[in-house]
Amino acid sequence: MQFATLRLGKGPRIHYAEQGRADGEPIVFIHGWPDSWFSFSRVLPFLPERIRAVALDQRGFGDSERPASGYTIPEMAADVVALFDALGISRVTLVGHSFGSFVARQAAIARPERVAGLILIGTGFVQSNPVVRELLEILRDLPDPIPTEFARDFQKSTAHRPLPPEFFERIIAESLKLPAHLWRLTIERLLEHDDAPQLARIQAPVRLLWGDRDALFSRTNQDRFLAALPAAQLTIYEETGHCPNWEQPEKVAADIVAFIEAR
């Protein structure tokens, strides 16, 4: 595993982790909220060397730069495409988790020629639901910095299966790198975004990975997505919450490899 930081043209400096052969099959991993590249750290060791895996910290998150603006979903999707350019990647499979799944979807809609495949973990048909709206209301009343116990309770609520303690503590630490105002702003920008009418424009093969104990996005959300894009396929993880990449990393890695090999 190697770590690096690069500037995206006139955009922010982006931190990322990379492994695998430089000429391997490229996959870019886009984390959820309020996470970082580390959200995929349990998946990456199970990927074969022939895959060039890149897991970034999106702008504002993790160890990437935190500019004052640029946090709409289309702007963050443009960052991902700019990362392809900076790394010399012409077409890529995108893996997006939760918040990151909406960024990945937007990249596939806006730049279909650059996206060879799309794996969406814990996504929803639409991002606005009572849980997310209630979260934003809670965030508006929280102090700066974000209390550690709030970050702990939130992250704990997203998983159903027990997680290794050291991994979970690092998840909390990564979450707290996101400044309090960006905890709020990024959720506001997510709620402003609505790509549901455009899902049919996605040309790449799509696989949804969803835990049947997901407390954020329901099975109905998955079915509505499939109705909008009938060529997409759904893989269900039993007794798994919103974070299959945390809870069943070996199976997620196997499903990613199978998806690529089936294209």
What distinguishing features does this structure have?
263 residues, alpha/beta, Rossmann fold, eight-stranded mixed sheet, 9 helices, 38% helix
What's a quick, concise take on this entry?
By secondary structure, this protein is of the alpha/beta class. Helices cover 38% and strands 19% of the residues. An 8-stranded mixed beta sheet has the order 1-2-4-3-5-6-7-8, sandwiched between helices.
Give structural notes.
With 263 residues, this protein is α/β, with parallel strands linked by helices. The protein has a single domain, classed as Alpha/Beta hydrolase fold, catalytic domain (Rossmann fold), CATH 3.40.50.1820. Helix content is 38%, strand content 19%. The protein is built from nine helices and eight strands. Strands 1-2-4-3-5-6-7-8 form an eight-stranded mixed β-sheet, sandwiched between helices. Strand 1 (2-7) and strand 2 (13-19) form a beta hairpin. The longest helix is centred in the first third of the chain and has 15 residues, at 73-87. It is globular, with a radius of gyration of 17 Å. The two termini are 26 Å apart.
User: What class do helices, strands and sheet pairing give?
Assistant: alpha/beta
SSE series: EEEEHEHEHHHHEHEHH
Describe the largest sheet: 8 strands, mixed
Number of domains: 1
End-to-end gap: 26 Å
Tally of DSSP helical segments = 9
What amount of the residues lies in strands?
15-25%
Number of strands: 8
Task: Kindly report the average pLDDT value.
Answer: 97
CATH class label: Alpha Beta
Helix content: 25-40%
- Structural shape: globular
Cα-based radius of gyration, to the nearest Å: 17 Å
Please name the CATH topology.
Rossmann fold
What's the CATH H-level superfamily name?
Answer: Alpha/Beta hydrolase fold, catalytic domain
Q: Widest sheet: strand order?
A: 1-2-4-3-5-6-7-8
Residue runs with pLDDT of under 50 for 5 or more positions: none
The CATH architecture can be given as 3-Layer(aba) Sandwich
